[in-house]
Design a protein that fits this description.
- The protein has one domain.
- The chain starts with a strand and ends with a strand.
- Strand 2 and strand 3 form a beta hairpin.
- It is elongated and about 45 Å long.
- It has 106 residues and is an all-beta fold.
- It is built from no helices and 8 strands.
- Strands 1, 2, 3, 4, 5, 6, 7 and 8 form an 8-stranded mixed beta sheet that branches.
Length: 106
């Protein structure tokens, strides 16, 4: 079971000169043991509001035994160029969701 660490999630559009714009989303999840793997994937199909990008946390438990040690896993998602003019990103893990506003960098 993954827990979204709400205050760690951030999203922005990187508009560095010489490169196409890139949407970057970062954040952390907490898992109950070592050995878990987790990543952010773009939900398909997306929701009804094209300005909100929906990402799912896909997590896999370790196969076999793993030390019972609460672990934090960093997540990152990039899309270049962004497929739409997103204003927000929703992150869902099957147990809950959070919404993050997208910042802009120049």
């Amino acid at each position: 079971m993954t827990v979204l660490l709400r205050n760690t999630f951030k999203a922005w559009i990187d508009r560095a000169p010489g490169a196409p714009p890139k949407l970057i989303m970062t954040g952390d999840v907490r898992v109950p043991t070592n050995g878990w793997r987790a990543r952010l994937t773009k939900r398909s199909p997306q929701g009804i509001n094209p300005k909100i990008l929906i990402l799912d946390v896909n997590a896999q438990e370790p196969s076999g035994e793993a030390p019972q040690e609460i672990t934090t896993i960093p997540l990152r998602f990039e899309e270049s160029p962004p497929q739409d003019e997103y204003g927000q990103v929703m992150i869902a893990n099957g147990k809950g969701e959070i919404v993050v506003h997208i910042g802009r960098t120049h």
